[in-house]
Amino acid sequence: MVLVSAMHITAGIWVNDAEDGLIADIDDWLEKLAPFRRDYRHHRTGETNGDAHLKSLLVHHEVIIPVTAGKLDFGPWQEVYYAEFDGRRPKRVIIKAMGE
């Protein structure tokens, strides 16, 4: 299996269909559930990225992908997506292969 993990608290990683309409729907959904607002308590720290933290919680920060016969075992339309919801600093992703 392969673990793919965002190394930042305002990023998310998920597996889903690689269809443009769905990607736009996911963006809209995240913005509806966690819009930018000035009144997040987190902003009292001087940061202004409270929405980015909430969006990361919604899509999570890591996925595990099965490996079969040395190949990633995706469904027919599955792809791994990375999203950075804050976008201000360089980011990292860690990929660890385990087994086989």
TrEMBL record:
<dbReference type="InterPro" id="IPR035917">
    <property type="entry name" value="YjbQ-like_sf"/>
</dbReference>
<dbReference type="InterPro" id="IPR001602">
    <property type="entry name" value="UPF0047_YjbQ-like"/>
</dbReference>
<dbReference type="Pfam" id="PF01894">
    <property type="entry name" value="YjbQ"/>
</dbReference>
<protein>
    <recommendedName>
        <fullName>Secondary thiamine-phosphate synthase enzyme</fullName>
    </recommendedName>
</protein>
